[in-house]
TrEMBL record:
<dbReference type="InterPro" id="IPR035923">
    <property type="entry name" value="TT1751-like_sf"/>
</dbReference>
<feature type="domain" description="DUF302">
    <location>
        <begin position="35"/>
        <end position="100"/>
    </location>
</feature>
<dbReference type="Pfam" id="PF03625">
    <property type="entry name" value="DUF302"/>
</dbReference>
<protein>
    <submittedName>
        <fullName>DUF302 domain-containing protein</fullName>
    </submittedName>
</protein>
<dbReference type="InterPro" id="IPR016796">
    <property type="entry name" value="UCP021774"/>
</dbReference>
<dbReference type="InterPro" id="IPR005180">
    <property type="entry name" value="DUF302"/>
</dbReference>
């Protein structure tokens, strides 16, 4: 099983973040959390790294369905989406969305595979939308 779905964009980091937020929103996801890993590591450890942002994306109807099946599934929510600079290719940004099937791997709750499949479909669509957009 793959940990997630990935695409690369030839654009700036800020543009990739904005486009990712829009693609997620178009699929019914809101961003509940945002972790700026670069800033956090610099502040806490005085370590430098590339731009690296973790967006905690949530599709409320899907989250509600999953929590209705298994309350502990909240431990795996929200769906993380990473936007990060490609350290090997200047001007390239990598966007990765978690694979919701991971939820299915940790519980055998009936009905959860259907929710994971729906979430996967929406996250794949968001990644596909990023691949089809043209940088401004």
């Amino acid at each position: 099983m793959h940990l997630g779905y990935t695409t690369t964009l030839q654009t700036t980091f800020d543009d990739a973040v904005a486009r990712t937020r829009e693609a997620l929103s178009d699929q019914g996801f809101g961003v509940l959390t945002e972790i700026d890993v670069k800033a956090t590591l610099k502040t806490k450890l005085d370590e430098d790294m590339e731009n690296y942002l973790i967006l905690g994306a949530c599709n409320p109807p899907l989250a509600h369905r999953a929590l209705g099946i298994d309350r502990q599934i909240g431990l795996l929510l929200p769906c993380n989406v990473v936007v990060r600079d490609d350290t090997e290719n200047s001007g390239t940004v990598i966007v990765e969305a978690m694979n919701p099937d991971i939820m299915v791997e940790v519980t055998d709750a009936p009905g959860l595979p259907d929710v994971a499949a729906d979430a996967a479909s929406k996250l794949k669509a968001a990644i596909a939308a990023l691949q089809s957009t043209v940088s401004q």
